[in-house]
From TrEMBL:
<feature type="domain" description="DNA mismatch repair protein S5">
    <location>
        <begin position="219"/>
        <end position="337"/>
    </location>
</feature>
<protein>
    <recommendedName>
        <fullName>DNA mismatch repair protein MutL</fullName>
    </recommendedName>
</protein>
<keyword id="KW-0227">DNA damage</keyword>
<comment type="similarity">
    <text>Belongs to the DNA mismatch repair MutL/HexB family.</text>
</comment>
<dbReference type="GO" id="GO:0005524">
    <property type="term" value="F:ATP binding"/>
</dbReference>
<keyword id="KW-0234">DNA repair</keyword>
<dbReference type="GO" id="GO:0032300">
    <property type="term" value="C:mismatch repair complex"/>
</dbReference>
<dbReference type="GO" id="GO:0030983">
    <property type="term" value="F:mismatched DNA binding"/>
</dbReference>
<dbReference type="GO" id="GO:0016887">
    <property type="term" value="F:ATP hydrolysis activity"/>
</dbReference>
<comment type="function">
    <text>This protein is involved in the repair of mismatches in DNA. It is required for dam-dependent methyl-directed DNA mismatch repair. May act as a 'molecular matchmaker', a protein that promotes the formation of a stable complex between two or more DNA-binding proteins in an ATP-dependent manner without itself being part of a final effector complex.</text>
</comment>
<dbReference type="GO" id="GO:0006298">
    <property type="term" value="P:mismatch repair"/>
</dbReference>
<dbReference type="GO" id="GO:0140664">
    <property type="term" value="F:ATP-dependent DNA damage sensor activity"/>
</dbReference>
Length: 349
C-alpha cells in the first residue's frame, strides 16, 4: 500500500529486541545447549552435566563446577550486551567461546530461565527471567558452580515451536552438539541425561595425559576405536597457523561427510574453506563419492581469525585463507604419504 501515509517509527522495547535477537542465536534446543555448555567451558568447568526433557523443549538444565557468578552480578549476567569476557576495545583478541553477552538474555526472552550460582567463599543465589523480564535474586543452596535451567523453550514464540522436529531428533541434535564441543575439550567430563527416563544418552569422562593423548582418547570415545585405530596424528605449521588432530587413512573413507570435524582455536565451525581443504588433502587418494574422516584443529593467534561474522559463531574468516588452506592440504598429504610409506615398508620387511 504505497499511497498510505508512513507508519510512525517506534523504538522497540527490550523484550521485543531480545526476542528478535534470540531468533538468530537460538534456533532449537541444541543451540541453547551449545550456548550454555560453552558458558560452562568458559567458566573453567571440569564437569558439565546436561539434562533434557522432551528433546530439550520442556527442560534443559546445565550444571557445571566452574567459577560461578557472584550474586551481585546475576542481574547483569541476564542483561543484553553484558559480558565478563571482553572489554569491547579488542574484538580481534577473543579467547573465549562467548563475547556477545547475548545468550542468557536471549534464552530468557524465549523460555523460562533460571540461573543459580555460587562462587567460592560466598552463599549461592538464584535469579529467574521469563518473557524477557528478570526477577529479583533469592538465596539458594548449591555447590560452587552454576546451574542454568531453561524451561518451555519458545513458549513465547509459538511459530518457532512448529519448526522443531521430534523429541528424539532434537535430543540427537543436542547429543551431536555436545560431542562436537567435547572433542575440543578432552579434559572436561560431559554427561547428557534424559530427565523422564533417567537414561544416560552420552557420557564422556575427563581424559588425562599429555600431548595428543587426551584428544585421541576422547575421539576414540566419540568416534569409535575403528576411527582412531585407522587414524594418524597431524602436526604441521605454516605462517603462524598450527594444524593438529587425527586424520583417518583413505581406506577408512565414508560414503558421506559424516565424520568431518573442524575446529578453529577450539571452536567447532562449519566452514567451506576448511572442509574444502580437507577434501583436497585426500583428493588423489580417494575414489569419487567417498569422504575422508578427520578431526582437524587449526590454532592461531586470535587476531588472525575473525569469529564475529556469524550470530551462532559457526563461521569464521581468516586473515590469510590461502595460507590456512595450504597448511591443511599439505599437512594432510604429508601425514598420509608418511603413513602409506610406513605401512608398505612394514609389509615388505
Ligand atoms: P557471553 O558468554 O557472550 O559473555 P552470556 O549471555 O552467555 O554472554 O553470559 C553472560 C555472562 O554471564 C558471561 O559473560 C559470564 O560472566 C556469566 N556466565 C554465564 N554462564 C556462566 C557459567 N556457567 N558460569 C559462570 N559464569 C557464567
Ligand atoms: Mg555465552
Amino acid at each position: 500500500n504505497i499511497s498510505a501515509s508512513p507508519a510512525a517509527i517506534r523504538q522497540l522495547d527490550e523484550a521485543a529486541i531480545n526476542r528478535i535477537a534470540a531468533g538468530e542465536v537460538v534456533e532449537r534446543p541444541a543451540s541453547a545447549v551449545k550456548e550454555l555448555v560453552e558458558n560452562a567451558v568458559d567458566a573453567g568447568a571440569r564437569r558439565i552435566e546436561v539434562v533434557i526433557a522432551h528433546g530439550g523443549r520442556s527442560l534443559i538444565r546445565v550444571t557445571d563446577d566452574g567459577c560461578g557468578i557472584p550474586e551481585a552480578q546475576l542481574p547483569l549476567a541476564l542483561a543484553r550486551h553484558a559480558t565478563s569476557k571482553i572489554d569491547g576495545t579488542d574484538l580481534l583478541n577473543i579467547r573465549s567461546f562467548g563475547f556477545r553477552g547475548e545468550a542468557l538474555a536471549s534464552l530468557g526472552a524465549v523460555g523460562r530461565l533460571s540461573v543459580t550460582s555460587r562462587v567460592e567463599g560466598a552463599e549461592g543465589a538464584r535469579i529467574g527471567m521469563s518473557g524477557g523480564r528478570a526477577e529479583g535474586c533469592a538465596p539458594a543452596a548449591l555447590d560452587c558452580g552454576t546451574v542454568v535451567e531453561l524451561r518451555d523453550l519458545f513458549y513465547a514464540t509459538p511459530a518457532r515451536l512448529k519448526f522443531l522436529r521430534t523429541d528424539r531428533a532434537e535430543a540427537q541434535a543436542v547429543a551431536d552438539t555436545l560431542r562436537r564441543i567435547a572433542m575440543a575439550e578432552p579434559r572436561v567430563g560431559f554427561t547428557l541425561r534424559d530427565d523422564e527416563s533417567g537414561r544416560v544418552i552420552l557420557r564422556l569422562d575427563p581424559e588425562r595425559g599429555e600431548g595428543q593423548a587426551p584428544l585421541e582418547a576422547r575421539l576414540r570415545a566419540i568416534l569409535g576405536a575403528e576411527f582412531t585405530d585407522n587414524a594418524i596424528p597431524l602436526e604441521a605449521e605454516r605462517e603462524g597457523h598450527v594444524l593438529t588432530g587425527l586424520a583417518a587413512l583413505p581406506t577408512y573413507s565414508r560414503g558421506a561427510a559424516v565424520q568431518q570435524f573442524v575446529f578453529v582455536n577450539g571452536r567447532p565451525v562449519r566452514d567451506k574453506l576448511l572442509t574444502g581443504a580437507l577434501k583436497a588433502g585426500y583428493s588423489d587418494l580417494m575414489h569419487a563419492g567417498r569422504h575422508p574422516a578427520a578431526a582437524l584443529f587449526v590454532t592461531c593467534d586470535p587476531a588472525r581469525v575473525d569469529v564475529n561474522v556469524h550470530p551462532a559463531k559457526a563461521e569464521v574468516r581468516f586473515r590469510d585463507p590461502a595460507s590456512v588452506r595450504s597448511l591443511i592440504v599439505t599437512g594432510l598429504r604429508q601425514a598420509l604419504a608418511g603413513a602409506t610409506h610406513r605401512s608398505s615398508s612394514t609389509n615388505a620387511s
